[in-house]
Amino acid sequence: MRAIIAPAPNEPAVLTDIDAPRPGDGEVLIEVSHSSVNYKDGSTVLGRPGFVRTWPLTVGIDIVGTVVETTTDAFTSGDRVTLNGAGAGENRPGGYAEYATAPAASLVKVPESITSAQAAAIGTAGFTAALAVLAIEDHGLKAGDGEVLVTGAAGGVGSVAINLLARRGYSVTASTGRKAQEHAYLTGLGASRVIDRQDLAEPASAPLQEQRWAAVVDGVGSHTLANALAQTRYGGIAVAYGLAQGADLPVTVLPFILRAVTLTGANSVDAPLPLRQRAWDLLSHELDLDALDRMSTTIGLADVLDTAPRILAGQVRGRTIVDLTR
Ligand SMILES: NC(=O)c1ccc[n+]([C@@H]2O[C@H](COP(=O)([O-])OP(=O)(O)OC[C@H]3O[C@@H](n4cnc5c(N)ncnc54)[C@H](OP(=O)(O)O)[C@@H]3O)[C@@H](O)[C@H]2O)c1
Fold this sequence. Notes:
Layout lengths: L1 E5 L7 E4 L9 E11 L1 H7 L11 E2 L3 E9 L9 E5 L14 E5 L4 E2 L6 H23 L8 E4 L5 H12 L3 E6 L2 H11 L3 E4 L1 H4 L11 E6 L3 H9 L1 E9 L13 H6 L2 E4 L7 H14 L2 H6 L1 E5 L3 H9 L6 E5 L3
Parallel strand pairs: 9-10, 9-12, 10-11, 12-13, 13-14, 15-16
Antiparallel strand pairs: 1-2, 1-4, 3-5, 3-7, 3-16, 5-6, 6-8
Bound molecules: NADP nicotinamide-adenine-dinucleotide phosphate (NAP).
Protein name: Oxidoreductase
Pfam families: ADH_N, ADH_zinc_N
GO molecular function: acryloyl-CoA reductase (NADPH) activity
């Protein structure tokens, strides 16, 4: 079968032919119809260290397809399923192949209302966006409670987060480095305001700044998250899920002890099944599928190799679907 594999540490991925995998105990075999390109996939395809822990390995942290064989009662042949993370493309074979195995313990049935291509468009990015929205709502925030800041706005997670939040009734400020070219795109997704990411990118001028955000969904880290925390209102929450600017976080404790701000995280890889199901329920009920289609581009398997450097350079808008049937 065709597959994109990471051949060895620090070597770029290649498109090649490999044997189809066999399902182990508690696993299903999936005929893969779609995958997607996430920031992590781009990094792995270029041979950068950090994510892959065993070689050679099929790349692709998202798998969407149809169950063709199962060793568990939880699924039957013909079920449309999706796996986001759970080690796919990191320590177990991922979705850039015509067949993949997946552990039933992390596998979700694709909701009826969502096509397989749309499930891949959602992928890890959309799933992570849903986790962030759930974290904000579990904190008690409601629409009308104040402005929500979404950083890395034109990226995959940011795009889905804006749409989900706007559909839930929140007023969303999108922070982007591509304000001129993506303003209409971001307001089309539901952002009520678009700001330049440079406003947040420099070292914080003060540990406490004007209180602007009821909540923050941050994929950028570093000074951006530090500034966002310094601007979060009393009792607000910031959800950190990414590190596009850096993994550092140069903050003081003042937002926490003087404004009772909460900093939490979203992790798509190890999310337990009930949380995965909650996130996919939210996506199936709330995400505007027309907006999802507008934020998505479809490529074939071989095109992944050219898309990888573009996603790392922040040049990809929204989501990229990989169509394995092409
Ligand atoms: N925790 C998890 O489970 C999880 C899941 C998915 C992704 N992630 C992480 O989240 C981040 C975003 O993932 P993604 O899939 O959405 O990637 P993506 O589609 O490439 O989006 C990232 C966005 O971040 C912004 N950005 C890029 N470089 C930046 C910089 N130097 N300073 C400030 N902003 C910058 C850009 O948005 P603008 O052009 O709008 O500025 C870019 O589109 C990555 O770090 C990824 O590894 C984590």
